[in-house]
Amino acid sequence: MSSSNFTGFVLAVVSSAFIGSSFIIKKKGLQLASANGPRASVGGYGYLLQPLWWVGMITMIVGEIANFVAYIYAPAVLVTPLGALSIIVSAVLAHFLLKEKLQKMDVLGCLLCIVGSTVVVLHAPEEKSLTSVLEIWELATQPAFLSYTASAIAVTLFLVLYCAPRYGQTNIFVYIGICSIIGSLTVMSVKAIGIAIKLTIEGSNQAFYFQTWIFLMVLVTCVIVQLNYLNMALDNFNTAVVSPIYYALFTAFTILASAIMFKDYSGQSVSSIVSELCGLITILSGTTLLHSTKEPDSPILTDLYTPLSPKVSWYIQGNGDPWKQKEEDAPPPFNLITVIRQDHFK
């Protein structure tokens, strides 16, 4: 492994550790806030006064910065799959800090992620040295990547304009498909901006090139679209289902886009490519196992008195006036002619 790839590998691992732990820290902060006021899921903002929640936010920001820098030193086919390590960190910390039981399938999923990540690292292609944003621009404007970008935009527009209004709330692949396809372009833009920042720090100012600002505009646009539809997916479907599907599709499209734009696999042997694909499949399998054991949170009771009134019956008296009977009330008079019953369950 080259020094550049090793630096990217270390940064990716550090990023996963920070991001994975940030979820647990923020969860603890939310639990403390809900003990003293309304929960965030019902509109409460007490977590903003919890120092622990802010520690979690800072931890996540540090992790995202480390992930951003990792793309500068290593190819996306190495950095992106290592994101699965954050799931392992979350699962282990949740076992000790949140008292969430780590089941046997969880342990197996963690082991699969570790084995798959090791295989990917050992067979990852070397990062190509780039000395200017103009070189990245040439890679981005080559016919093969332009064809990928045009196809990605066309499919995204079809999903947004046609599929989302009709099937978005019933088919999980609509919103996640949009996030994953746009996410691959986000990563390519992140890599371009990251390299531009690195070169600028080294003394070669890349801000003078208009291509740098085009990459920045593409990055901002893609991030906004990606976050919007990811929130819609999480709002409509179970997180335990969204996460593995999104991770699988996002990783697949990102590796495809990187292979086309940066020609990551150029010069690699067939055995190395096959080994890396096997490692990726192993990581995806481990991720699926980890999420398959997670149960959704129990629904929040917004009405304190709901459990105390499981059933209410409405009766229409003979004179047309309604009369409401609870379970503890006596039976209605005999002159009632219509009974309409409505049961309320917890």
TrEMBL record:
The chain crosses the membrane at residues 6-25, 45-66, 72-98, 105-125, 145-165, 172-197, 209-229, 241-262. GO terms for molecular function: magnesium ion transmembrane transporter activity. It is a multi-pass membrane protein. SUPFAM superfamilies: Multidrug resistance efflux transporter EmrE. It holds the Pfam family Mg_trans_NIPA. The keyword Zinc does not apply. It is found in: Cell membrane; Early endosome. One of its GO terms (cellular component) is early endosome. The keyword Magnesium applies. Keywords: Cell membrane, Endosome, Ion transport, Magnesium, Membrane, Transmembrane, Transmembrane helix, Transport. Homodimer. Acts as a Mg(2+) transporter. Can also transport other divalent cations such as Fe(2+), Sr(2+), Ba(2+), Mn(2+) and Co(2+) but to a much less extent than Mg(2+). Belongs to the NIPA (TC 2.A.7) family. This is Probable magnesium transporter. The gene is Vigan.01G067800.
